[in-house]
């Protein structure tokens, strides 16, 4: 991955939190690397699953705060980056503050799925809030993930094709159809 992005003028890289990206990100006190912009859909999913599994009122409260940010994103869709940033600063920043406060307040007494969700989100919080500081960054990576899903599934399904010729047939028959129109 580092070789692919070497020399790129990319300032932010939106990711799902996979540890393989960590080598690309800026280290404290350096001017090299990119900033991480993490995906709120991944954090939200952890609290949503906790809410379903345990009926946790704390998880439910955090899901509601995250929904407020998504409502802002819906209103910001199609706006120029400067206006999106301004709207996010005004409307999403208070929700982010509320989320962090709830996470820090609940962390010491949390256990199980709730503890995992809180730890995941707190560890990634700086990267999760990058979207409010730059109107070009999306709140989540779902659109990109939908576009590459067919490629990933084809790769996974053809791993054990049996032989080289069978792999060629897989590559021809199951290639993604066209360019993603997400």
UniProtKB/TrEMBL annotation:
- Domain Transposase IS66 central, residue spans: 3-168
Q: Which branch of life, at top level?
A: Bacteria
* Stated name of the protein: Transposase IS66 family protein
Cross-referenced InterPro entries? Transposase-related, Transposase_IS66_central
């Amino acid at each position: 991955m580092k070789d692919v992005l070497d020399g790129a003028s990319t300032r932010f890289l939106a990711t799902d939190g996979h540890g393989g990206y960590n080598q690309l990100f800026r280290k404290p006190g350096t001017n090299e690397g990119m900033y991480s912009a993490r995906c709120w859909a991944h954090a939200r999913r952890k609290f949503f699953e906790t809410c379903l599994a345990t009926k946790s009122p704390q998880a439910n409260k955090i899901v509601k705060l995250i929904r407020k940010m998504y409502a802002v994103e819906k209103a910001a869709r199609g706006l120029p980056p400067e206006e999106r940033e301004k709207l996010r600063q005004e409307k999403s920043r208070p929700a982010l503050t509320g989320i962090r406060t709830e996470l820090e307040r609940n962390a010491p007494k949390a256990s199980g799925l709730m503890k995992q969700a809180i730890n995941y989100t707190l560890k990634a919080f700086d990267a999760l809030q990058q979207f409010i500081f730059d109107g070009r960054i999306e709140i989540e990576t779902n659109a990109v993930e939908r576009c590459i899903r067919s490629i990933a599934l084809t790769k996974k399904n053809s791993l054990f094709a049996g032989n080289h010729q069978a792999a060629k047939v897989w590559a021809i028959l199951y290639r993604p159809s066209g360019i993603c129109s997400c």
